[in-house]
Prior knowledge:
Residues 1-21 form the signal peptide. This protein has 506 residues and is α+β, with helices and mostly antiparallel strands. It has three domains: 5-119, Uridine Diphospho-n-acetylenolpyruvylglucosamine Reductase, domain 2 (2-Layer Sandwich); 125-236, Uridine Diphospho-n-acetylenolpyruvylglucosamine Reductase, domain 3 (2-Layer Sandwich), CATH 3.30.465; 239-471, Vanillyl-alcohol Oxidase, Chain A, domain 3. The chain is built from 17 helices and 17 strands. It has helices spanning 5-12, 18-21, 29-39, 54-58, 78-91, 142-149, 166-172, 179-182, 210-216, 255-268, 308-311, 330-339, 358-378, 393-401, 429-449, 474-487, 492-495; strands at residues 46-48, 71-73, 95-98, 115-118, 125-128, 133-137, 189-195, 201-204, 225-232, 239-247, 272-281, 287-294, 319-320, 323-325, 346-354, 383-391, 414-423. It starts with a helix and ends in an 11-residue tail after the last helix. The protein binds flavin-adenine dinucleotide. Flavin-adenine dinucleotide binds at residues 97-103, 108-109, 119, 138, 159-161, 164-165, 167-169, 171-172, 174-175, 220-221, 225-226, 339, 460, 499-500.
Amino acid sequence: xxxxxxxxxxxxxxxxxxxEASKRTPKNPQTCxxxxxxxxHGQGKVVMQSHPDYTTLxxxxxxxxxxxxxxxxxxxxxxxxxxxxxxxxxxxCVFAIRSGSHMPNKGFSSTDNGILISLSxxxxxxxxxxxxxxxxxxxxxxxxxxxxxxxxGVAVLGxxxxxxxxxxxLLGGGISFLSNKYGxxxxxxxxxxxxxANGSIIKANxxxxxxxxxxxxxxxxxxxxxxxxxxxTYNINAHAAGVVRYAQSSVPQLFTPLYNYIVTxxxxxxxxxxxxxxxxxxxxxxxxxxTQFYTREVDLSNPPLVMxxxxxxxxxxxxxxxANLTGVGSLPKAFGGGSTLSSPFRSxxxxxxxxxDEQLFRTIHSLWLNVSLPYETSIPGFSNSIAMQPIGxxxxxxxxxxxxxxxxxxxxPLVVISANIYWSNASDDTTMELFLKDLFTxxxxxxxxxxxxxxxxxxxxxxxxxxxxxxxxHNNLVRMRRVKRKYDPxxxxxxxxxxxxxxxxx
Length: 506
Ligand SMILES: Cc1cc2nc3c(=O)[nH]c(=O)nc-3n(C[C@H](O)[C@H](O)[C@H](O)COP(=O)(O)OP(=O)(O)OC[C@H]3O[C@@H](n4cnc5c(N)ncnc54)[C@H](O)[C@@H]3O)c2cc1C
């Protein structure tokens, strides 16, 4: 079914009186699966629980977040998605949307109450070397994109772990190895193809649906199902990358160069990018892992100034695996190989942000170590890390220069502070939730005490008990609400899609 623009206008203006309809009780999921099966009869796109492929298709990156959808729908085209969404809207069927399933929050990319749309069949990657763009199907993992682009000598702003899905990553913002140079990954998307709640397929780019374009740059799954993203490509291939690991004794020496990198280094030399990560596994000494990336080959015996303090041995490292490589996907693929399905652990993330301050970084680090200490012995499988990642001037400049301004609401540089914890037993879930709550209450209080709390919460690292959308600022909330009412007036993506971060006040 293709829905015309005039029907779309009637629906979006509310003239069809559909807002009342959204209050109806959802249909029985088995009935929904049967209806879907009839619509796609004989095409093998609706996988019931009894089907041999169900278990493989259902597997989630985080085993603890794997649910039991009544059936799994595997579209191959945007038209398939359109027909299914129109059916779900009409019959009030609960559904969940999944790209790479790397969002650990339970219920975000699966459901126990309905149909899982697994987008993995939308795996197109079409590179246009004349226009320096690539069209990427919404079900791709970044590894597939890198496999296509690396041999052509070009790069996109994708995930630093190649196993992550393109959709969740891009709809939340996207921090890439190239972000210090080119900004948010989502600000590098020139066109989104999206299926709206009424089944219409539209394109949001700088010429049409510009209001929606801005909201897709950070607004997550609230507006529709994106079926493809068209991204800018850059002529980057040979580069330097790797990981430097520091023992506990070296950690105190890292904060001064980290602060310098954040406040001046990343702007002075945006070719350089690091992921500064502090790790504490139960029973193991504390360590720090600083992942390195430089967009060109470097002379490792005389590295660029900005990189030097982290790799030249002046801060003793017990491992230094930085090398010149080809194919920008090579390091993400090395990480991705390690994270592929399916972690046996349970996991939660939490995030906040602060303004750069060396002493505050040290305070946050000590707080994190101290607050987590008791859990190391009491929680089986406890593993804990905290990262401090800058969102610098280049992000803001790119946002300001990009049509369809993103809704993230960042107007000054800040540092994203995110914790990522793992543990083994479901019986410890509540304790771990309380641990994160306690830790972040203390971190925010420490930042506020020195006037350095920033408020912004990066959606892609948002915990299940957070709602990063509430931190995008009043004007962006108003924008998102307006655009939501225009493109999804029945709030299908707020009610029938149960998981995900929702726009407050809808
Ligand atoms: C190992 C690992 C490494 C990571 N590395 C990075 C990194 O380098 N940089 C960074 O910024 N983030 C990173 N992240 C965070 C990551 O960006 C988010 O977890 C992101 O949501 C994952 O996207 P996904 O498609 O795999 O997830 P999914 O769980 O499939 O989807 C996430 C959310 O998006 C919705 N969604 C998915 N597809 C669509 C669609 N087509 N249309 C509408 N809604 C959709 C889902 O319903 C869900 O709510 C990493 C995460 C992990 C686990």
